Amino acid sequence: MQDSYPRLEVDEEVDTAYLYFKNICEGEAVKQFSVTNKNGDTVLVVDLSQRGEILGIEFLNARTRFPGYFPK
Fold first, then answer.
1. Is residue 72 scored above 90 in pLDDT?
2. Three-state secondary structure call for residue 26
3. How many CB atoms lie within 10 A of CB 39?
4. What pLDDT was estimated at residue 54?
5. Which residues lie below 8 Å from residue 59, measured CB to CB, with a gap of 6+?
6. Per-residue pLDDT tens for 4-54?
7. Nearest 5 degrees, angle CA 53-CA 56-CA 62?
8. Is 71 helix (H, G, I), strand (E, B) or coil?
9. What is the pLDDT of residue 49?
10. Any idea what the Cα angle at residue 31 is, between residues 30 and 37, rounded to 5°?
11. Which of 3, 5, 7, 59 has a beta carbon 3.0–4.6 Å from 17's, enabling a disulfide?
């Protein structure tokens, strides 16, 4: 079965979610930038290719952003 994109993958242990826009090969994500909230806390990290293509977005504190993906 081939993956479809975009695809959301959650990691309950570290409370993150990653939104894939494509399959990411090792070493393909060469640039990152962080987005912070008004308190200065990082809320997400965007992974970019060498050409500036958005490969995926990592959401921190995912339980509050995607409550349906986590068991109660």
1. no
2. coil
3. 6
4. 97
5. 16, 17, 18, 19, 43, 44, 65, 66
6. 899 999 898 999 999 999 999 999 999 999 999 999 999 999 999 999 999
7. 155
8. coil
9. 97
10. 145
11. 59
Q: How far apart are CA 58 and CA 32, in angstroms?
A: 10
H helices within the chain, ranges in order?
62-65
Would you state the structure tokens that stand for residue 44, as one six-digit string? 């997400």
Alpha-carbon distance 32 to 60, whole Å?
Answer: 14
Does 71 have pLDDT greater than 90?
no
Name the one residue in this structure whose structure tokens are 């958005």. Answer: 54
Supply the pTM of this predicted model.
0.85
Angle at 52 between CA 59 and CA 44, to 5 degrees: 10
The DSSP secondary-structure symbol of 68 reads: G
